[in-house]
Amino acid sequence: MSKIHLIPYEIDEIIEVSSETPEGVKMIQAPDVWEKTEQGKGNVIAVIDTGCQIDHPDLKDRIVGGKNFTTDDNGDEENYDDNNGHGTHVAGTIAASSANEEGIYGVAPAANILVVKVLSEDGSGDYQWIIDGIHYAIDWEGENGEKVRAISMSLGGPTDVPELYEAVKRAVDEGIPVVCAAGNEGDDRHDTDELAYPGSYNEVIQVGAINFNKEIAPFSNTNDEIDLVAPGVNILSTYLDSKYAKLSGTSMATPHVSGALALITKIAEEQFDRRLTEAELYAQLVRRTIPLGYPKSAEGNGLLALAILDQFEQLFTTFTTPYNLPSRKRKVTASRKS
To answer: Where do the coiled-coil regions begin and end (predicted)?
Structure first.
């Protein structure tokens, strides 16, 4: 099989120290639902990427395990540390959690990360590594019986490999949403298709990128399998050497959705009082989107907006609550004498 690669991305800025909630996290309204979702507590998201800096101050308490499938570090399966930076950035957008006044917050700061290192230092890897990594994430079980609730993959290649498709399909069949980057080969035209796999499989949740002006990023791939869009330009998150960085790409949009699934799962499964299927979780996800006015090939169902249902409910309540108008006194007319 040929190689698969990180979807190309841009490093906009590296930052020594940061203490804020990133704009992308706020844009998808994650903080608005943190209280009712316990910030995603108890849900494990598998990050299939370049590994993760496991001792980063904002991530060290969120990582529950992992495995290295690459030949880095002589193929040591126990060393899934990040020697590229991409995986650490993705993990931070999902679940970074600051233990003090310094640091940042991800979309689901109480969710946990399973680190699946399938790409080497140069950002490339064998298709077999990715395939094995997906099966590992499906089969993984934590000390207390935890299972992976979503898989995040900000990688892609031009080749449709049957074994990759089968691995993705197995995850979905077992109730695990697979969230994938659309790709950064876009030509800023919405009537042309740019395809990358596994993002273009119908079974995955394919994520395009927008900027903070809610405009489709010119690099974001367009095709008829785009499911939704999320912030992907100048995104602040964790980075190597315990630093922070602002990166751009559909790779950065994807973990916003992966982290959101940790929050949505908490809400929906509490409401239904049972474990939901992948199709049901997908339905709950797309209910929380807002169309931006672009063709479906560019935005799918629209921008992720986690609090939109609560806002609709408040609006509905406003229009259905009767006003307490002041009572009108009856005018008393003097009776005529006979």
So the answer is: none
Dist CA 119 CA 295 (whole Å): 33
Judge whether 86 counts as a catalytic residue: yes
The yes-or-no answer on residue 327 being catalytic is no
Of the residues 18, 72, 82, 86, only one is catalytic, namely: 86
Q: Is the pTM of this model over 0.85?
A: yes
Selected catalytic residue, list 152, 200, 248, 251: 251
Which residue carries 């063709």 as its tokens? Answer: 295
Instruction: Give the model confidence (pLDDT) of 95-114 as tens digits.
Output: 999 766 789 999 999 999 99
Collapsed DSSP state (helix, strand, coil) of residue 184: coil
Segments making up each domain of the chain, as ranges: 3-320
DSSP output for 84-135:
SSHHHHHHHHHH---SSSSEE--SSTT-EEEEEE-S-TTSEEEHHHHHHHHH
**Domain 3-320 = CATH 3.40.50.200:** yes
DSSP for residue 311: H
